[in-house]
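> Could you send the DMT family protein prediction when you get a chance?

Sure thing. Input:
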Amino acid sequence: MKAVYTILLLITSNVFMTLAWYGHLKFRELKWFESLGLVAIVLISWGIALFEYMFQVPANRIGFRENGGPFSLMQLKVIQEVITLIVFTAFTLLVFKTETLRWNHLAGFACLVAAVYFLFKK
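Output:
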């Protein structure tokens, strides 16, 4: 069950982080947002990223083997990277209609999934 909680927390944290890192690129289309300076945008993104940490830190604590979780540190990191790519890809395709998913993106993602496989191999 700790594995499921860890992955759900990592997914949630990545949704917030993707929004913090890339959401402002779309938010600029909002009337009130277009007049903000870079410092204000950084502070808004930082505020969103705070929620990312509220899920990321518990995910790592619950999931880490030395805390009684099922994953090694290397496994946690690679799981997080694959989740990041999935969340980022979904966000990009849903929010930024000008982006397209091409074969080379899928090939790169397949390499990361292979990395997960090799890190879990005994």
